[in-house]
């Protein structure tokens, strides 16, 4: 009977390695450690304290990691105001997200954020309320939960519009140089931010109006590139 327990517990530990999901891998390892502990505790001539010690250490380590993984997945402890950014970034752990927040600062509206034609000093994410994007004499209300200044951030160029944070609106701001340093140091933050900026840009492009139609440009005598 004890030999069956020994093989069963080790087979379960072996099975754990088949899972890519850390949560499953660690949960199954915990089960295996419990069964292996029972085996070394009840073995004839036992308990065998040396293997029991290492089973207990492995159990505790994995149980602790399960708690951390769970906290990451449910986003426990995250300020509800920054929660939309955490949810949209998707792949960042709680710790990575906290480091990203620590690199930024909060700005309360009304505030002028970006000036068209100039290189923005910061990248912004609207947490609540709206921002006014002004371009070609037209004003567009945008937000919340979008980036501002991401075009200049990605291209390294100048701002395509002027942006003002509306009254009672709030945003996060990251100094461009500091954020680039953080992204170079933390690959996960780099990937998560770039992914979200691309999604944001795609949504803005899909919503934006088209320019003059081909027929109107032809009528105006414009050259149409083919
Ligand atoms: N049509 C638009 N819709 C939403 N946001 C815009 C639009 N045009 C410009 N912006 C924002 O205004 C910002 C101005 O600086 P950027 O060009 O870096 O990035 C721009 C976008 O974040």
TrEMBL record:
Pfam families: cNMP_binding (PF00027), POPDC1-3 (PF04831). This is CRP-like cAMP-binding protein. SUPFAM superfamilies: cAMP-binding domain-like (SSF51206). It comes from the Bacteria. The chain crosses the membrane at residues 51-70. Keywords: Membrane, Transmembrane, Transmembrane helix. InterPro entries: cNMP-bd_dom (IPR000595), cNMP-bd_dom_sf (IPR018490), POPDC1-3_dom (IPR055272), RmlC-like_jellyroll (IPR014710). Residues 113-183 form the Cyclic nucleotide-binding domain. Gene3D superfamilies: Jelly Rolls.
